[in-house]
Amino acid sequence: MPLADLKASLLLETTSKHEAAPASMGMQKTQYDMALEQFQRAADLMKLDPNVQEILRKPRRILSINFPVKMDDGRIILYQGFRSQHNNALGPYKGGIRFHPNVTIDEVKALSMWMTWKCAVAGIPFGGAKGGVTVNPKILSHAELERLSRSFFSLISEIVGPFRDIPAPDVYTDSQTMAWFMDEYSKNDRNNPFAVVTGKPLIIGGSLGRDSATGRGVSINIEEAARHMKIDLKKATCAIQGFGNVGSFTHMFLEEAGVKVVAVSDSKGGIHKKTGIWFNDVSAHKKKTGSITNLPGGENITNEELLELDVDILVPAALEDVITEKNAPKIRAKLVAEGANGPTTPEADDILFKKDITLIPDILANSGGVSTSYLEWVQNLQHLYWSAEEVDQRLKAIMKKAFAEVWKTSQEYNVDMRTGAYVYAIAKVTSAMKIRGWV
Ligand code: NAD
Q1: 110, 150, 146: which is closest to 128 by C-alpha?
Q2: Are 315 and 339 in contact (CB under 8 A)?
Q3: Which atom, in ligand 1's list, is nearest to the CA of 213?
């Protein structure tokens, strides 16, 4: 590919997945604006010390690097990457690294801030961080991707480490990327520093149960909410947007809990079947046809229609900004569980709350992933590995406690669960900062 075309595609080519960055949706607010707005709501409500607010509004440190990568044909391309470390009062920084053309410093800042709250809500001893490289990894060869991953990690190694900052996979990075990262780090460390990243392959210190952990966490949160809301899950219906890692495992675990999943979707569209969609049937159909649409016995629907179905439970598990002030008045579910990060805008939050719809926010609902990353880190440090059942039990205990604390806080303040989760998380981070003498 000529250099000019390559550069253009690096910048412009987006993929169906995760392509809805706010700018591409024509939205005014950036994700960082949204993160700040959510923070401010909670800070005002809890009359948070202005000195604490001053510190928490911005990441502690952002490393921004331009680094060269040699392509297979000998050319050098300069890539841009970031690592944002928001706050580490509660423990070492923790957060994923994404490779995507839409990665910006602003996005990484917002995501690092959300990680601080997510870890605090889950009660795991980590602070918040996030990283990314502005690249479309789909057009790189395996060898180019390996060189890019190793270069990036070698450069951020200055600020990461098993007790400083522990990255993990995120959009378009996976266990292979983590294996390269860990190996690159081991060259300087001269040990086998498995605990420097999580989400690794099992053979080099990954944890059983990590793959399904986020979906399992979403399902546990729904079970807890149903108990409080007196929803009988055996009679409940559910629609799930997104049939990737989070959406598909959520489907599987909800089905096990007796919920009838009546609609699912992916980037190509959705399917609605009132008699229920079995997880095994839709998985096999997607494997065979490459899509979940046209599932026998079902009716094809759009992703927008799926969100507005008359169901008890709605799980947005694909993209950000899908529930907005436009469609929030038409949402009919009693319970919304955010499998995805940032699917609901602050305006939509208000509308849903007024309609008495309970929303389990992303920083609680999808925290099963980072919680199991924590369990992986603990196993690495102790060199003792647990069975899948032990990991699942520990995850369940973490999720149930987190849900109970957030539920209690939102009842106490009479606010939606997102604000309750923020108040709970900010209070924890604040006490750690105060006792450490930072404010
Ligand atoms: P994934 O790539 O495995 O799946 C994404 C799914 O969304 C796919 O089924 C894809 O077809 C679908 N999709 C893409 N564009 C769509 C569109 N326009 N409309 C409907 N569906 C569309 O990703 P994932 O790991 O399941 O992540 C999904 C969300 O969950 C993201 O917001 C991610 O940040 C968040 N999340 C993931 C984890 C995790 O452990 N995987 C943890 C926390 C949060």
Answers
A1: 110
A2: yes
A3: 40
User: What pLDDT score does 28 carry?
Assistant: 63
Give, using CA atoms, the residue closest to atom 18 of ligand 1.
267
**Which residue in this structure is represented by tokens 């923020």?**
422
Specify whether the CB–CB gap between 289 and 300 falls below 8 A. Answer: no
What tokens does 231 get? 């929803």
Q: How many helices (H) and strands (E) does the chain have?
A: 15, 12
How far is ligand 1, taken at its centre, from the CA of residue 246, in Å? Answer: 6
pLDDT over threshold 80, residue 2: no
CA–centroid distance, 152 to ligand 1, in Å, is 24
- Summarised one tens digit per residue, pLDDT across range 263-322 is 999 999 999 999 999 999 999 999 999 999 999 999 999 999 999 999 999 999 998 889
Question: Of the ranges 1-10, 190-199, 201-210, which one carries the lowest mean pLDDT score?
Answer: 1-10
One of 94, 109, 118, 130 is an active-site residue; which one?
A: 130
167: β partners: 95
For residues 243 and 285, the answer to whether their CB atoms sit within 8 Å is no
- Token duo for residue 329: 């008045």
Name the residue among 253, 247, 236 with its Cα closest to residue 271: 247
Active site residue 130: yes
Give the integer Cα–Cα distance in Å for 246 and 236.
Answer: 20
Handedness of CA 213, 221, 117, 37 (dihedral sign): positive
CB 277 within 8 A of CB 300: no
Distance from the CA of 436 to the center of ligand 1, in angstroms? 37
Mean pLDDT of the chain: 93
